[in-house]
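Q: DNA-binding MarR family transcriptional regulator, please. Structure only.
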Amino acid sequence: MTDSTDSGRALGGLIFETLRLAGRLTLAGDALMAGVGLTAARWQIMGVIAYLPSPRTVSALSRVIGQSRQAVQRIVNDLHTAGLVDLLPNPAHRRAPLVALSDRGQTLYAEAEARRVPWTEALAADIGDHDLKAAQTALSALRRALERREG
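A: Structure for DNA-binding MarR family transcriptional regulator:
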């Protein structure tokens, strides 16, 4: 086995904690959104759609969120069946519609946000501004490094 540097060990620890955190966020998201009838996965995709300034294809959504196109497609299909997203014609590609929140989806997402804000505010108060900014900086740098290596 090759010896790791201090930085390599620190990054390994960060990756391990990030994986553990992802699991905890999914569990917490499922619990938080149960009252509005969303899973964490559906809430996450709706959040990306709401955040972006214009409708995007499933492929574009998958790139933004860093998940496979197939996984995002499955969730978008579920959201469409539930009437929470609309599939709009895409002038650039006939077979790849643009995904937008429907009126019903916008209403449900607003309910989800009303639950999320006090939850994230309470968590932020437990952690502290300095640590949150440092964590965001480190995780953003790691994501960018991975994206550069992807090609």
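A: Brief note, in case it's useful. The mean pLDDT is 95.
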